[in-house]
Structure formats: structure tokens, C-alpha cells
Design a protein that fits this description.
The structure is a single chain. By secondary structure, the chain is an alpha/beta fold. It has one domain: Rossmann fold, CATH 3.40.50. Helix content is 44%, strand content 13%. It contains 8 helices and 6 strands. It has a 6-stranded parallel sheet with strand order 3-2-1-4-5-6, with helices on both faces. Helix 1 runs parallel beside helix 2. It is globular and about 45 Å long. The two termini are 26 Å apart.
Length: 246
């Protein structure tokens, strides 16, 4: 699945799923622009790619801030070229009981998890239209499919990402751009290791009795970004070890 000649932007690329996705797309031949609020982490990701023989740069900034997106896009254009692949991965996933959830907390999470992909798509789609080819992969969550106690705002934002994906896919299907979503489930990342999640305690209750690996998500994204997936759009490719069967 060669992506030679393609330029990929991956948001939230400083660690976890974003880093794994960025590395995999680079291994498949894409030049990668790693975007993250944590610039040092994004720089580490880009270095890993370059050390492996790939081409990559890092861009700092908030993927839900239009001005910072424009800055990152301009830097990507300068060093790599026009964007042909966009992976919207950056997100917040906090736990909060509904009775304790404030309007400000709701708005802050929606800004990152839902407005962020909207802004990044608005920025990148003109490049794709100009090139007559584009791949957008939005990372949602199995929590949007099953619900998640004490994560009402998170699950709602990720359900919004799924609806956003399907609608955008229909709008651009005839214009060379595919738009799909991957909802991970219980994948062993740095974020999963943070409280209150008990990875070892929860794993035995999952169908596969183990968490997934970031590389599992990266492989799904790489397929949807490939030429082989050119007749797949508006699709929700669940990678969750059987947590949710659709």
C-alpha cells in the first residue's frame, strides 16, 4: 500500500495512537507532518520517522485553534508540500460523573474533540481538491458506539465525529476525497494507563482478554488512507477486539 508522494498530517502525534499512525504512514511512504500541542513529543515522533529513513516534520499548536492550524499548514506546505492525507486523532478523554460535569468542561472538550476535526478539515480539504485526491480518517471511539459511564461528554463528542464523517463523506465522494472513521476500543496507550482505568483488571472481561496495540489502529488508518481503499467512504471501521460488533 504505497503512499509515495503523499503528504500526511497527523494530529495528536506526540504519543500513543497518533505516534503509531504517523510512523506507519511514513513506513508506507508518506511524508508526515506531526502536529501536537506537545511540540517536544511531536519532534520525537518526527525524529523516529527520519531515523527510520522517512521524511517528517513537527508542528506545535492547538488543533482546535484556527490560527495555529494555519501556521502548521503553512509550515507543512513549506517543507513537505500540499496535504493529501489528514488523520484527526487529537482528543481529550477525561472521566467525570455527570452530576459534576460543568458547561465549561463540556464546551472545552467539544472544542478539541469535535470542532478540532472540523477546523482541520476546513484547512486541508482545499489542498485535496486541488490535487484531485484526498484521504481523511477521523479517530472516534468505541465509547460512542456503546456509551461510557462518567464520560458522557467524551462519548457524545465522538458520536459527533462519526456523524461528521458520514456527512462529509457524502459531500466529497464525487470529488476524489474519501472520509472514514476508526473507533478504537481499549488500546494500550499512555492515556489508558492513567487513572481511573485499571488495564489489568479490565482486560479479562473483554472478548480477546487483552488490550489492543496502537499498531492495530495504525494499520486500519493506513489501509483507509491507501489507494486500495478508494471505494470506501463514510465507513466506520471498528478496531476494538470485539468490544462492539457492528
Amino acid at each position: 500500500m504505497s503512499l509515495e508522494g503523499k503528504v500526511a498530517v497527523v494530529t495528536g502525534a506526540a504519543r500513543g495512537l497518533g505516534r503509531a499512525i504517523a510512523i506507519r504512514l511514513a513506513q508506507d511512504g508518506a511524508a508526515v507532518s506531526a502536529w501536537d500541542l506537545n511540540l517536544e513529543g511531536a519532534q520525537d515522533t518526527a525524529k523516529i520517522i527520519r531515523d527510520g529513513g522517512g521524511q517528517a516534520i513537527a508542528c506545535g499548536g492547538n488543533s482546535a485553534d484556527a490560527a495555529r492550524i494555519d501556521e502548521a499548514l503553512a509550515r507543512t506546505h513549506e517543507h513537505l508540500g500540499k496535504v493529501s492525507i489528514l488523520v484527526n486523532n487529537a482528543a481529550l478523554s477525561p472521566f467525570c460523573k455527570f452530576e459534576e460535569l460543568t458547561g465549561d468542561a463540556w464546551d472545552a472538550l467539544m472544542t478539541v474533540n469535535l470542532k478540532g476535526p472540523f477546523l482541520c478539515c476546513k484547512a486541508a480539504i482545499p489542498d485535496m481538491l486541488e490535487g484531485g485526491w484526498g484521504r481523511i480518517v477521523n479517530i472516534s471511539s468505541s465509547s460512542a458506539q456503546t456509551g461510557s459511564a462518567a464520560q458522557t461528554h467524551y462519548a457524545a463528542s465522538k458520536a459527533g465525529v462519526i456523524g461528521f464523517t458520514k456527512s462529509l463523506a457524502q459531500e466529497y465522494a464525487a470529488r476524489g476525497i474519501t472520509v472514514n472513521t476508526v473507533p478504537p476500543g481499549f488500546v494500550d496507550t499512555e492515556g489508558l494507563q492513567e487513572p481511573p482505568v485499571d488495564v489489568a483488571g479490565y482486560a479479562p472481561f473483554t472478548p480477546m482478554k487483552r488490550p489492543g496495540r496502537p499498531e492495530n489502529i495504525a494499520a486500519a488508518v493506513a489501509f483507509l488512507a491507501s489507494h486500495d481503499a478508494d471505494y470506501i467512504t463514510g465507513h466506520t471501521l471498528s478496531v476494538n477486539g470485539g468490544r462492539y460488533c457492528n
